Known about the structure:
Structural class: alpha+beta
Strand content: 5-15%
Helix content: 40-55%
Low-confidence stretches: 469-499, 539-550, 614-618, 692-703
Mean pLDDT: 78
Number of helices: 26
Amino acid sequence: VGLTFYLLGKLELGRIVYFFPSHVLVGCIGGIGAFICITAIEVSTNSTFSFSQKGFEECIVANFHLLAPVIAFELVLRVLIHVTEGRYTLLNPIYYCMTTPVFYFALWLLGVSTEKAGQLGYFFPALDTGGNGMLSTDLFDIFTFVNLGDVSFRAVAKALPTLVSLAVFSLIHVPINIPAFAITTNTEPDMNNELIAHGWSNGLSGLAFGLQNYMTYSNSVVYAKSSGKGRVSSIAVAALTVLIFIWGPIIAAYVPRCIAGTLLFHLGVDLFKEGVVDSYHDYDRLEYGGCWLITISMVALGMDAGLVAGAIAALATFAAQSIINQHPVKGSMTASTLRSSAWNRSLKAEAILSCEKGRRRILICQLEGHIFFGNSTSTMDDIKERLTEKRNAGQEPFVLILDFSQVVGIDSTAAHAIAKLKESLLRNFLLLEVILFVTRDDEGFPCDFALSTRVCPAKASIRIVERKPGSRLLDGSDSTSRRMSITARAFQMNHTEPAETIAEIPNSRVFSKLDDALLFGEDVLLALVDPHLFREDSSEHFPPVRASSHSLNEAKGFLRELCPQSTPDEINLLFGLFEREEYNRGDLVWRQGDASLSMKLIASGSLISFIEDGSEAGAAETIHPGSTIGELGLVNGLHRLTTVKVVEDHTQLYSLSLERFHHLVLTNSYVARFIDLLTIKYLAHRVQYVSNGERLDKRSLPV
């Protein structure tokens, strides 16, 4: 036992205690309290209590005169605690010390001798120790009887399974007692150190042919409530315990039973109150019912049964909390509410995505909790109902994103239902082009069933191909094509003549991030409306790296797209304030904490922005042509929030200095307002960005 305790602590396996829910520990506290109350009754009456009429009459009714002093002492102590409002931490130990002389004083007042009181059962019987207490030759007889030559090691080998079982059983108490004591005293224990200490204690006891031992919860609570703390007081208690072990039998004959009964009864009531009374508002009905189950089991059937009941309560709570969400569909919204990280698309692409048949036709359904056989049917029906409502309102989605990132588990029945859902939706909702699935991580769905492969047999991308003469374009009525992994469409929203090119779009994909799914959904919309535009503005190269010459016209074109409300003359005026700069790989544009003296327009090449220090160290964002950086600091004077470094040779930047911007504000505030609007645009997108809740997400850095 000692070796097992020591190894558990040394290997830092103390975290095992966190597998015991709080309400289980509180239930154990209540059970221990009730158990101690019964022990107090039995100690005070020198009889055995049982939950029967006979047990009640023989233990309590027949010996009520022995319980009366216990009840009286307990009531007086409760009144004192209430009056003093807990201001005096030494009230309890002082009171217990005074009860013995008070009891003797009461005997003197009543004219009852100690001999008579002993005959009536008010005192513990004296033990015959020859006047030496336990300090006699009999105490050390075990060391003279043990002879290793007489030990049958074959019998020891056969008994090893039993010994291992006893050792395992002994380990049960520590993970219960120590966390329960921590709850009572409102402290945070180091379980590894506690296990190591138990290892030393049991190891030394075993070498001395002693018994296994562990921390006694009730004694420790009394010690804590008496303001016991520190190493000195602990050593003093240990020394006093040794003395009591030796001479305790002699002293016990002069200690009234009611004193021990009062101590136990007061402690038991406190623990019972803490376990099942004070915790009433701290737990839900199921957890609170578990507290009572443990308490009743421990009182009626014993400590072992209480521990089993605790395990049952923990498992029941886990099962109930796992399936308590019978409606896993958390909610649904369109991509106009939950935006992707694509904040730098071209004006044409943004016009398509912002129209009535743009991002509003991307529907996101977020799911959570456990999806299993009990709620899989209702979950699938809920998703279909949401799509039906959109169709009836004339807003049937073109892209459906099913977000499983908050789903904890999927059983095999639910996994098969999800796989069938894809086929059913594509067959019954004719305008629905693509279904995208978002998983918790790169490992896929939280189930053993190969659901990722089932819903998306091949990881295909959008392809733009030329339509062969005489070939037939697929339309929404071709149900066969909708079952294939690739749906070839030439979806005409704004044209009356068939397009010369078509977009081959996979009808399903699996992503590990919601942002990636949103980006792909936006690409689908662009490919459906204008395949040529998709080639130029695909998020597969996002932010878009358009043909990057070093001409002024291209840089000016970037600025025109960033300021869509401007006229050519206004763009010429604004762009004339920018100065061309060239950098090479490894050059620093600025460092985190520098003063904001300019903003930059990236014409060619690429940059990287990253945080150098703090808890978010390591977060980074790549900056591509067509983007601007530093506009936030230029407008409000913030120091640089990130470090920006060049990652490609011959990177071309256009810089607007702080001095020229201030001059523009004074001379032409209307044109200067374009920089303000650009700043607001970027900040607004970062606020709406789907992943800006992720603290280290690379696209949430203000640069």
